[in-house]
Write a structure and sequence with these properties.
Blueprint (H helix, E strand, L loop, with lengths): L4 E2 L9 H9 L19 H18 L5 E6 L2 H13 L6 E5 L2 H10 L5 E5 L25 E4 L1 E2 L4 E2 L11 E4 L16 E5 L10 E6 H4 L14 H6 L9 H18 L2 H20 L18 E4 L4 H13 L2 E2 L10 E4 L6 H18 L1
Parallel strand pairs: 1-12, 3-4, 3-5, 5-8, 8-9
Antiparallel strand pairs: 2-10, 6-7, 9-10, 11-13
Helix pairs in contact: 1-7, 2-7, 3-4, 8-10
Family: Belongs to the class-V pyridoxal-phosphate-dependent aminotransferase family. SerC subfamily.
GO molecular function, one term: pyridoxal phosphate binding
Keywords: Amino-acid biosynthesis, Aminotransferase, Cytoplasm, Pyridoxal phosphate, Pyridoxine biosynthesis, Serine biosynthesis, Transferase
Length: 365
């Protein structure tokens, strides 16, 4: 069996232990004589696993029972319109902190539903090289919520502090760094994340809403049934058939984080070490590799850098693939190189990648 070192940005690597468990249970899950993909989502076996995944999510996040955990479809991109659809009505407004591509995508959808202020670090050429400083964040206290993206997968920046926004509810797209580190749940009113980076496979999006913020959502009768948070919360995300297999792998991944890794504090130390190794390889390359992001905004999840020419970058991607290191080509909108070092990528893999970088530099400088 061949296993490569997978730095894809998403769908991304899944812990080997999780894949092996799923393989073991593929034909007979939980003694049912069926795959989890064949079991009714109305069965007691499925519902127990579904509820366990919610409880595991709360436990890892440090959330109490006042948090509603929803398993939805449509990716984080669907939350770009579901959140304003559920909250921007009756003259309400919002504030968006835009520090990358997906923040821009969120405001593109929000404009269909209500007014909002935008605070951004976008450069004149359309790139982003840092997150906002606290002194740049001025929030209209009448805002219904403040929206932020904690990690920017394309441009390789990340918030290393959580902004103070007064008493306004804070909403966060954590798709690409959720559970890579601890975070203060009590600072947030809603968080969401597509699973395909740190939580498991594509197909399920986790939305966590604190009860006080949930109570501000639009009435169910005034929205399309499937686009109302109330529909999914009142039916335990079982109003229709959920993405059962994706939720099953999510469940196994959460157990891996809790039991094998030992929780988010330990995961954070592992991710800090991985980032240190790669950024050291960039900074010690005498300019051969150039990281465009300001150092205090560098992402620990998506390490991006450039080489002297696009042609050299193509050679890097080609030779990396020959060395069984895949998924390192930067996003099509930016070019360059990107290592996505999500939770399932072990320190050992990152060390091999750094060794490859040094070997490539010696060969091509």
């Amino acid at each position: 069996m061949k296993r490569v070192i997978n730095f894809n940005a998403g769908p991304a690597a899944i812990p080997l232990e999780v894949l092996q468990k799923a393989q073991e249970e593929m034909l007979d899950w939980n003694g049912t004589g069926m795959s989890v993909m064949e079991v009714s989502h109305r069965s007691k076996e499925y519902e127990a696993m579904h509820n366990e995944a919610q409880d595991l999510f709360r436990k890892l996040a440090g959330m109490g029972p006042e948090w509603k955990i929803l398993f939805l479809t449509g990716g984080a991109s669907s939350q770009f319109f579901m959140i304003p659809m559920n909250y921007l009505f009756g003259g309400r407004k919002a504030t968006y902190l835009v520090t990358g591509h997906w923040g821009k995508a969120a405001i593109k959808e929000a404009k269909h539903f209500g007014p909002f202020d935008v605070l951004t670090t976008e450069n004149p050429d359309g790139t982003f090289t840092r997150v906002l400083r606290q002194d740049e964040i001025k929030i209209d206290p009448s805002s219904t919520y403040v929206h932020m993206t904690s990690n920017n997968t394309i441009f390789g920046s990340q918030w290393h502090y959580w902004p103070e926004v007064g008493k306004v509810p804070l909403v966060c797209d954590m798709s690409s760094d959720i559970f890579s580190r601890p975070f203060p749940a009590d600072k947030f009113s809603l968080i969401y994340a597509g699973a395909q980076k740190n939580l498991g496979p594509s197909g399920v999006t986790v939305v966590a809403i604190r009860e006080d913020f949930y109570n501000l959502a639009q009435e169910q009768a005034k929205l399309p049934t499937m686009l109302s948070f109330r529909t999914h919360a009142e039916n335990n995300s079982l109003y229709n058939t959920p993405p059962c297999f994706s939720i099953y792998i999510l469940n196994l991944t959460l157990k891996w984080l809790l039991n094998t890794v030992g929780g988010l504090d330990k995961m954070a130390k592992i991710n800090e070490e991985k980032a240190r190794i790669l950024y050291q390889a960039i900074d010690n390359s005498d300019g051969f590799y150039c990281g465009p992001v300001e150092k205090d905004s560098r992402s620990q999840m998506n390490v991006v850098f450039r080489l002297a020419t696009p042609e050299m970058e193509e050679t890097f991607v080609k030779e990396a693939k020959a060395a069984d290191i895949i998924g390192v080509k930067g996003h099509r909108s930016t070019g360059g190189i990107r290592f996505s070092t999500y939770n399932a990528n072990l320190v050992e893999n990152v060390k091999k990648a750094a060794d490859f970088m040094e070997e490539f530099r010696r060969k091509h400088r």
